[in-house]
## 1
Amino acid sequence: MGVPFTPRANIIMTICLGTIACVVTSGCLLWFAWPYSDYERHVGWTVEQPVPFSHQHHVAGLGLDCRFCHSSVERSAQASLPPTFTCMTCHSQIWTNAAVLAAVRDSLLRNTPMTWQRVTNVPDYVYFNHSIHVVKGVGCESCHGNIAAMPLTYKAKTLTMQFCVNCHRDPGPNLRPAENIFDTDWHRGPDTPGPAALMALYHLGRRNLTECSICHR
Amino acid sequence: MRCAWPLHVLPGALLLLAAGCDDMSKQHKENPYASPRSAPADVAQGSVEYHDTFHPAPGLTPALLQRGRSEYQAFCAPCHARTGQGDGMVVQRGFPAPLPLATAPTRSATPEQLYAIITSGQGVMYGFAQRIMPDDRWAIVAYLYALRRSQQATLADMTPAQRAIQP
């Protein structure tokens, strides 16, 4: 009895099977990894806003503290976007004729809020609370990146669950002394208390921070 | 002819699986910044907050002064400068310069008057009632006194230990 298939048919079959295996494997990888990619999470994309607000100018140039505009960040789940009133604290006197600020003046005149677009987001089933992070020593920069270097604001970190859980497993290295929470481009210095000392200072490490219900209600 | 049992179970199982095809990252719950209708509105000047009450000054403690320093540097320093001289960065960019805090009339103002100015503003200065909590406003008032005293300190104000330190 002879060989049932010619060598040529065998090669074609092997190539076909190999290709199918490759396509299935890469398809699965793409299916699972794609939603967590920086591209899909829009990391580094600027978002179009009603006014091209520059954090670089206001934070690095003028030295404004985060809380000057995001004033509820220490006591509320939301850092809060500033109402037009906050913008007009200064812009009632400075750049009063600037065309770029027309939307702000219109907003005050018509008493309609500005609609800022969200830059940093987590899914709706995540109950993120700004105040507890700020009070427990997590700097704004840890999640929002170096805002002072952003002429137009973009999302600096993926903010996937892995990003959150990495820090919740071991918060120490990401903690800062209370006076440096709002600093941008802050780095640990020789006088900075170590991660363990900061954990003790903020009374961390007593509760399991990776419990599901900490973030998902 | 009877069909095999998977044919009974499979459609149901697939339907159940399909029920999970929902993007839960977007849910029907209030998103305060999603629309102009629900975005934070401005509070008219001079209006009283719901359930607002009288806020007496808290006790003077080092913690209160530290809080006052932090709040002063966040909210006041852009115009009044960290020294209180009134030449902050926003003033350098064209905002009308305020009077130095260590001189009259701020110098002669009572704590209650300073608190009222922080709350509802004065002249071209907007009120900060929305942004600074009552206790923090009192903390800033306390810090203003500390700031003024630090700038007009005399040798007699220093403790013997402080005097011993060579500059």
## 2
Amino acid sequence: MLPLNYAILHCYRTLETADADQIMESLKADYERSRSFRKKTVVESLMTAKENGILEEAGYEADAGGGLHVFYRLTDYGKEILDKYIPITV
Amino acid sequence: MTESLNANAVALKRKVDSRFFRKGVTVAVMSGMAYGLYSAFITYAMGAGIWTEWYGPNPGLTVFTVTFVIATLGSGINDTMSAVWAIIIAAGKGKLGDFLRCLKTKPGAVMVACAIIGGPIASAAYIIALQMAGSIIIPITALCPAIGALLGRILFKQPLSARMIAGIAICLCATTMIGSTQMGGDAPDTQIIGCLIAFIAALGWGIEGCVAGFGTIVIDYEIGITIRQLTSGLANLIIMVPVMSLIAGNIALSPRLTFAALTDGPSMLIFAVSGFFALFAYSLWYKGNSMCGAALGMACNGAYSFWGPFFCWLVLGVIFGQEGWNLAPIAWAAAILMFIGILLIAVNPLKLFRRNEGRA
């Protein structure tokens, strides 16, 4: 099993764009028992990755409940970093 | 995915971005404050219990042993106590499994390398310098962002603009100002050597800031700091203290002094406090750098050039009544000037102003 932060980034290899909810849904089976698997953690991880050029924003929308959904996608630099330092086989 | 253009989404997005930016800056500033508190409490710890004897007039040890072995031991105990806190916090948040998994990966190895450069090498140099020259070395070690910028240029071909060079010049001027007041004819010889050793700490942290910045892009900062403090603490106690003892001519000093320090209740309690603040000094530094970019993060953290002397004066001078922690006014002014220089190196004030305008 990958560390949670690695797994969050790796989701973007298969999902072209995704927001925090979609990432959580995709990782739920493996990580739902982990205490650190919380939406706040995932959102902060995504925003940090975006701040450092690993991810870029692909759009955002508000839902009927007043929640915000920010969608991200992997950048070329991000793909290079994942391939070089955290390949899926770690 | 289509971008919603409704006003509610735009307002929410602006609010979320603004909150994230403010949190990043707050975290980075708090890292500098935690660094000041860590400096004050480690100095206090190394003046309590058995350490009073070692740093007293008749320690029964050579000058080399007192200067290097004892100082490295202090750094090692502090980082080990900090690692204990880091493990407790990581366990409490359910991150211990990820900590072990990260250790086996390349970013984990990068963090270990950073821990050795920033820990046994830079932190030991910092503690030795602090013992030899007092809190006056703290602004010197705050040159690490300047060194980081230079290393970034040399190692990673990062841009080095006229603005950044101006900032480095301001930092060097500030260092000279401090030197002019503290290294006069009556200054002890150890103070000059202490200031030189402080540059080793600045160099080590400059490298650490560059390289660990990469590591925390992918590693959770609380896992990163657990790797850092555990590696640093153990490397100091298991490698550096025996090596220093060997150089001092008596390898048997290592277990004897380590055991005496670890079983000294009064100082260990204070080391628990200094280790606690050291944990946040480094973990918030990493987190701040990753949240708002290394440049702004390191600039905010660089405020420890002020917080270090400030908390040494507040904790040791005011609270515990120790004398000699007041700094000459010019040194305070130099610390502030150095902070301005560091800020200029790290951030274009015009860009920062425009960014804030955009977020208003």
